[in-house]
Structures are given as structure tokens and as C-alpha cells.
Amino acid sequence: MQKVFLFAVLFIGVNIIQAQLKVGDIAPDFKLTNTDYQKVALSDYNDQEGVIVVFTCNHCPYAKFYEERINLLHKTYAPQKFPVVAINPNDSVKYATDGFSHMVKKGYKFPYLLDNEGVYKAYGATKTPHVFLLNNTGKGFEIAYIGAIDDSPQEASQVQVKYLEDAISSVKAGKAAQPAITKAIGCSIKPFQ
Amino acid sequence: MKRICTLLLIVGLCAFNSLKAQNVEEITIKQLLSRVNENTDTLYVVNFWATWCPPCVEELPIFAAPELNDSDRNVKVLLVSLDFKSQKEKQLLPFLEKKKIQQEVILLDERNPNDWIEQIEESWSGAIPATVVYHQNKKVFHEGEMTLPQLHELIRSINQ
Fold first, then answer.
1. In chain A, what residues touch B144 (CB-CB under 8 Å)?
2. By percentage, how much of chain B surpasses pLDDT 90?
3. Which of B35, B86, B63, B78 is nearest to B152 (CA)?
4. Mean pLDDT score, A110-134
5. How far is CA A192 from the centre of its chain?
6. For residues B67 and B103, what is the distance between their CA atoms, to the nearest angstrom?
7. Is residue A94 part of a domain?
8. Any idea where the Thioredoxin domain is (chain A) (predicted)?
9. Backbone angles phi, psi at A51, to 5 degrees
């Protein structure tokens, strides 16, 4: 019996490690500490039409490039019931500026959660910034889009395609995002061990 | 006489510096791919990195291993920097000089990562560092930091 149990544990473990969310999957719930020390859960957003989940951090230059654009996304889309939830998956042992006090200093208008529970892994986030657009179907949050915010990380003024905003429009229109997955350069995540 | 000596010394130092300084070429993915897929015997070890990426910088010394930089063995390291073009003079070049990087460094001249990441490797999420080995139209890929033995293992795996 013990062996069976061990096997089951191992099996679940492997599954968690390999979990890679795909478009159409149900988004895993999370409950993490926000910069105001309150817990924020995905289920707190059940009355919204969707959620823009951004795995991001403080130290990464690509994350910095997008700070203003993420602020703007929240300002534009929160009133349209697609608010931003930012999650920092990095351990400050590796990058001091990713520590909690530095997150508080950002003063974001949206939750900025510290992921010391490996939520990034459940989502399959590998880098910062890494965006997951969730669509509230009423039966749960479905992944509608994974990837980059737009096509010009370094120069906001040179953006030609706003992947994420296009995906939000598609979801609002009841259509599939096109493209539903994009790739972007980012800083690899250095998680809590 | 002393003045002349000082002058000579300065001129000498300048000449020495300019010999040492890397001339970092800016190339597109298309140019990079055509170079590593040239039909030669050369095995290319291509590392994607940036000065702003601490794990990349930590990993850089493994690419200086003598066996990877031996033209007699037809091995060539290319360090493809994803530094920002605007910071080439201010950030990248001084870094290369300070760290005495001897391998060829090239600066990627691309705007939209979504256009080129998959041309390098479909499974690559875009996190750096990442390393690709090319040899005679074959390639093997590794995402994340590596040790020198892991890099050797990756190189061996290309012919298996």
C-alpha cells in the first residue's frame, strides 16, 4: 500500500513539473499575498469577464520596459472587466530588487502578488514578463491567450501589433484569439526553492 | 624626452586597445542562420545572452573553454547578444572589454521576438540564456543555464 502511495505521489509530482497550460485549459486558482499584505485569489475575480495575469518582476529590463504599458492596460481594461493581476515569481535571494519591499514601492493600482508557492509552474510561465489572458466562462477561467503584450518590447512607440489587446477584443466578441500564442524574450524565472 | 615617452606610451596603449576591442557586428536572424548553416565542417555553438541577464553573465566563462575555441577542430563559438542596440556603446562594448571576452560577439538586429524565436527553436519559450549547437544542417537546443559538462553533452548529442 505504501508503495502505491509513493507511486501516486511521484506521479502527481511529475505531472506538476510538466504542467504546461494550453489555450482552452482551465486556469489554476491561486491565493497569494499582495503588497498590502492581504491575500488575493483568482476566485476573487469571479464577477469579472476576464483577468490579465502577468508574471513579471522588478529587476528584468524587459519587465521594466513594460511597466508603463501594464499600468495603462489596467487603466483601460479594468473598467471593461478585464483587470490586471501581476505575479512576481522570483526569489529575492537571487535578485535583491525582486524582494517584497521593492514590490510594495512600485505602488501599482492592481494587485502585485508574491509567488512563493510555485503558481508560475502551474501556469507554465518560464520568464518575465509572461502574459496569460483568462476568459471567465462562468464555469471557470479559461486560458484565451499566452505570450507577449505586443510586438515591440524595447520601443513602446514602435508597436505595430498589440497581441494582448487584440486577444481581449476577440474574447469580448466571443471569438478565439488570433494568434493565441506568441513568443517573447524575457528573463528566466528564479523561483523560491 | 619624458614627454615623448609619455606620448609614445599613450599612442601605444591606444593602438593596443583598438586591437583588442571587439568589433560587434549587428546581424539579423536570417544572416545568423545562413552563417551557421553554411555547408562547412564547422560546428557552431551559439549562445543567446545579454549583459543585463545575470545568469547569462554567470554562464559566459564556459564558452571560453579552449576546446570550444579551436579552429583546428572546426569549432566556433558565437555569443549572440540581446542587449539593446541603444546601449551597444555604453553597455555592451565596455562589458566585453572589462570581462576580456575573446569569443566573437554579435548583436541581434531584430524588432519583434515573436518573428524570430521560433526560427531558432520551436520549443524555446524566449527565456535567456539559451544555447544552440549547429553542425551540418543538424541542431540541438538547450534553454537555461548550463555547466561545461552539460554543454559537452549537448555537443555530443548532435551526432547521435
1. 188
2. 76
3. B63
4. 97
5. 17
6. 13
7. yes
8. 21-169
9. -140, 140
Are B81 and B113 in contact by the 8 Å Cβ rule? The answer is no
Residues A86-110 pLDDT 10s: 999 999 998 999 999 999 999 999 9
C-alpha grid cell for residue B134?
549547429
We report the CATH number of the domain holding residue A103 as 3.40.30.10
- Give the long-range contacts of residues A14-18, CB within 8 A, separation 24 or more: A16/A121, A16/A122, A17/A121
Query: Is A102 contained in some domain?
Result: yes
The number of distinct structural domains making up chain A is 1
Shortest Cα distance, chain B CAs vs residue A88, angstroms: 16
Chain B interface mutation, best of A145, A188, A189, highest count of B Cβ atoms under 10 Å: A188
Q: Are B94 and B119 in contact (CB under 8 A)?
A: no
Taking an 8 Å cut-off on Cβ atoms, the answer to whether A187 and B126 are in contact is no
Residue A152 lies in a domain: yes
Angle at which helices B113-120 and B29-36 cross, to 10°: 10
Which cell numbers in the block locate residue B146?
548550463
Calculate ∠ Cα B120-A147-A82, nearest 5°.
Answer: 170
pLDDT band, very low/low/confident/very high, at A12 (cuts 50, 70, 90): very low
pLDDT tops 50 at residue A135:
yes
Q: Would residue A121 count as lying in a domain?
A: yes
All three cell numbers of A171, joined, read 474574447
The C-alpha atoms of residue B56 and residue A61 are separated, in whole angstroms, by 14
Residue A62, domain extent:
21-188
Best mutation target, A91, A150, A185, to test chain B (most B CBs within 10 A): A185
Lowest mean pLDDT among A4-13, A76-85, A97-106, A169-178: A4-13
- How far is A168 from chain B, CA to nearest CA, in Å? 19
Q: What domains, with CATH codes, occur in chain B?
A: 23-157 (3.40.30.10)
For B90-108, what is the mean pLDDT?
96
Residue of A nearest to B120 (CA): A183
